[in-house]
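Deliverable D4.2, example record:
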Amino acid sequence: MATHKSAIKRAKQSELRRMRNRARKTVVKNVVKRVRVALAGNSPEEAQAALGQAIPVIDKAGAKGTLHRKTASRKISRLSSQVHALVAKQQPTAEK
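Output generated by the structure prediction step:
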């Protein structure tokens, strides 16, 4: 265990950050799961709504440093492409 005053403070700060990051990661996992469940259920409306809720949460986790910013961007990009593919598949094609 830390014995110096500065080391004790650093340990407390690290623990607080660890708990904060853990909570943010859990929220990110939950919103991503909601999008994936909607995708599995073939419901484009639910998927788009879930994606709309997921994007700001993932962005914030990336901005705060919980996730690397490129990891956050990659998650958003992959989810968006899956949702857009589902929406495109569900829409009837316009006949000429």
